Amino acid sequence: MLNKHLQNILSDWMQSADEPAVILSSRIRLARNLENYAHPMMFKDDTAEQVIEEVSSVLGNEYELIKMSDTPMKERQMLVVKHLMSKELAQKDYGAVFINEDESESIMVNEEDHIRVQVLGNDLSLHHLYERARIIDKKIDEKLMISYDEHYGYLTTCPTNIGTGLRASVMLHLPGLSIMKRMTRIAQTINRFGFTIRGMYGEGTQALGHIYQVSNQLTLGKTEESIIEDLTQVVEQIIEEEINMRKRMNNYDHVETIDRIYRSLGILKYSHKISVEEASLRLSEVKLGIDMGIIKDTPFRFNELMVAIQAPFIDKLYTENRQIDEKRAQMIREHL
Prior knowledge:
By secondary structure, the chain is of the alpha+beta class. The strands form two sheets. It has an eight-stranded antiparallel beta sheet with strand order 2-3-4-5-1-8-10-9, with helices on one face. α8 (224-252) packs across α9 (254-270), α9 (254-270) crosses α10 and α12 packs across α13. The protein is built from 13 helices and ten strands.
């Protein structure tokens, strides 16, 4: 049932005793299209339902099928917040998503492409995630006719995905680089090598809570292995710069850093109204304080809170007729 995927704020694969300081999650996504159907943007009549049935016949009972046409918008938005599907798919009544038990795998159907296979993890093991995605991809490829060209590779709706159809991405918490205003330089540098930095919900979204998504831009002319290897190296360099920036903040801006962190903690503890933008920022700075050893013995689950403060989950937790910003502040106060 859909409720199974909405009753817990965090997916099972994100549960861990210790939250990492920088890497929050990683993802492998493969875009595929069926040869004998028009792409989703050109759908007519009952084509969308036929594509869903084709994919369902391959995936079987290993995944739960959730059709957008049967799902209220608020619940669609909750699935987006949990990164189980895209905000674009949430807007399409003819779309669907297949989700496995621990929510580490989801297959979007009829988004921009017919099929988008997504595998998620909580560390930098992109090669492992790709091997899992390949198993799903192979199962689909064996049963369905996939659009493929010997010269160009996999054919996708957007030309930027042609080739491997692979998007590898890593979600990073980068408060040190953000506070010290280094993100623009980093974004410009990695862009020259075919990589990009986006907000936490992908293209066109803002970096709430100093969280950034680093991913490849190039899918044509490189193998899947080389894309993953190059992205891993880029991410490792960004992590090293973040750690160095935190050391600098501690050594040369110690008083300012402590003041910033404890001000954020105080705002979270005592606010009675707070926007999602400010809540994300303050939560990020408190996590920074915990990771740097400045704040100790404070009950704090950053990943869970960053999901819980989003409007769809706030409305689910607090049904009183009050403004969303008031409900959000109450939830955070109760947590801390």
